[in-house]
Specification:
It is a single chain. By secondary structure, the chain is an alpha+beta fold. Helices cover 37% and strands 21% of the residues. It has four helices and five strands. The longest helix has 16 residues. The radius of gyration is 15 Å and the shape is globular.
Length: 115
């Protein structure tokens, strides 16, 4: 069996601690589709230092695509998702408008290493 390549960092409790230590108090958690992840069970978290920036991102999402969470107030919800083996949560570290170009370069570099 060949595992699907996934360049994203896994969101776990140590990662939550790390992003809060860097001053991020909010995340936008949104649905994420990727090869090898069951439809509806993948999520991407984008960290934000302030609620206003997170709200701008969340407002761009449709319906049940995602929502803004407070890392302090909503930690039980986040922990439940992290600890549930059915779900896959990842951390988005791409903020630039040209993130897709960086993603393609990262993918190509890692594919070259594998071959």
């Amino acid at each position: 069996m060949v595992a699907a390549y996934n360049p994203f960092e896994i969101l776990n409790l140590p990662m939550i601690r790390r992003i809060t230590q860097h001053g991020n108090h909010f995340i936008v958690l949104q649905r994420f589709t990727w090869s090898g992840i069951k439809e509806g069970f993948g999520f991407m978290a984008t960290p934000y230092k302030d609620e206003k920036s997170g709200k701008v991102h969340a407002a761009q999402l449709s319906g049940n695509e995602g929502k803004l969470l407070n890392l302090s107030a909503d930690i039980e919800k986040i922990t439940a998702l992290i600890n549930d083996p059915r779900y896959s949560l990842f951390l988005c570290t791409f903020r630039e408008e040209s993130w897709n170009k960086k993603m393609i370069k990262l993918y190509q570099r890692n594919m070259d290493i594998l071959h």
